[in-house]
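Usage example:
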Amino acid sequence: MRILVIEDDLEAQRYLVKGLREAGHVVDDAEDGETGLTLAMSRSYDVAIVDRMLPKLDGLKLVESMREERNMTPVLFLSALSDVDDRIKGLRAGGDDYLTKPYSFAELLARLDALVRRRDPGSVKTKVLVGDLELDLLSRTATRAGAAIELQPREFRLLEYLMRHAGQIVTRTMLLENVWEYHFDPQTNVIDVHISRLRAKIDRGFSQPLLHTVRGAGYMIRAHA
Amino acid sequence: MRTLSVVSTQSFRIVAVYLAIFACSATALLGFVYWNTTLVLDRETDETIRAEVTGLVEQYQRLGLPALTDAIINRSVRGEQGIYVLAGADRRPIAGNLDSWPQLTMTADDFAEFEFERRVGGVPELHRARGRVFTLSQGGFLLLVARDVEDRRAMENLLATALPWSMALVIVLGLVGGVLVSRNLLARLDAINRTSRQIMAGDFSKRVPVTKKGDEFDDLSNHLNRMLDRIERLMRGMREVSDNVAHDLRSPLNRLRSRLEQASRHQADPDMQRDIEAAVEETDRLIATFNALLLIAEAEAGSVRESMEDFDLREAIEGVSELYEPLAEEKGVRLVVRKDRRPAVVSGNRNLISQALANLVDNAIKYSPPGSEVVVALEHGESGASLVVADNGPGIPEEDLTRVTERFVRLESSRHSPGTGLGLSLVSAVARLHEAELILSDNQPGLRVDLRFQRTKAIARPVRAPARLDLTYQDARAAHS
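Running the assembly step on the lines above writes:
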């Protein structure tokens, strides 16, 4: 995908751009807010990564300006600020996701992926399918190969999130934020326990597992290995 | 917080004391005037009587009884205040302006007092008189020379009735005045108090109102405002420092982490790769500690106003216990949730309260032996609701109970388990931010932690709809129609 990186910390920018390019993306970069805004408005990007504090034009103002001009490119904020409320400010200004520095590159990639796919208009559907696993969003039921799977409400939401992002890596933090709506780091990795429970429900007794652990990154649900 | 009533105010007390002093001095003044006036009047009466007696006695001595009789008749006719009676030894009046000899009461100073009937405009009135009685040397005749002192008595009566009434009036007017003054002062103090409360609740943009009167209250308000300005500046400075520290530490940590990740991706040697990954993990631990410290600093600075919302503590209990239940089960610990249908709504940061509760539950599960239980409860007390987490683990020795909420304190026994040692300090900071009390006690055995919120609202306003999942329901609806 085409990614715009607006980051004033040049060394950080270099690593970021290099990593993204290695991951197969096309990247443009800017090191101040004004240049960044010009680029964002003149070219079309799948997603923009915007540092919160930028010279010339602050990250928040930049995104506000973009939104005022009806530029709806998904924006992921990177912030080194300490403010607890900063995430809220960022999302209010029109940002779509928010990541505090330092972040793991895998986390960033997974979030970019999720941001870009979220815009997919094909998401208006009542059933989600991954292989022979089917999730009915209306009746809130799950079946695999025709057999009903009993799920707690939260397990349903967890599975739904994973299936909506089928084929993408979903990190623990993303799950915690989107399924539980918590923006903190639990001391123990509670998400892993939830996943292993879910895995027991959907994969046990099937030769073809659907829910995979991606080492050092998170989880992924997909039909074929 | 207690609202001031008029009676309990300092100004009212001052007015009351002033009123008492005023009432006393008014009484004393009136008493003195009364005493002095009667004294002067009495003396005047006595002087007049003495003078008249001297005159009459002279007449009698020089010219004898007939001349005295004439003089008495003459004076009687003149009327006015004088009363003259010349009577025989049998007390039958011979001359004078009384029909009969009155019933006399002798006073200590040899004066006689009596009552008599006097016609005023044809109506008989009982008047009081004061005078002297002499027995003449010839034939035992009696001479009474007196003056009508009814005026003095009237004044006496007037003062006697006026005194309590005027006193009552003084007190009533004083009280009304006192209440008015107190109310006025109270209104201004209330304004100051109200503002202070709002500021204590974290709204640092508020200032104490200043009127145009320029009085001592305005002085006080101005001083308070100047103080607030300074505090606000200091706080802003502190936040800038923490922002700068955050920025200046996060940026290099970010570069460090990126560099390590990059190196790891390009490293083919598995041993080398393992080392680099270990370094990344170490960096992450460093970052976690740093983040926890920053969060504590922010919670303590109270700089999370934007995200304060009405939040039902039941939601924290439900969310967190649900998040930790599988972990507890995996450890063989039973997670018992106790709450009833009553809501406990606090104004707070949902994420921070949940994180604090998660820290407590995490700790409780971590230290619980398999087979024991961890209780997560919402308890309603008299002043508010408490989040309670209780375990049957090893607990904390009595002497360490207060120490563990300090930063970086990790008890010797837990030194080797993972964690930043900031878990409880964060809980403590979150408690302070929400004006909640953090109480650690012995659960016999184990640790019981109470997070006691002071101000809970009984009625829940609709609490926060799940933001992200809206999509699902909308999609479902769209497909349905």
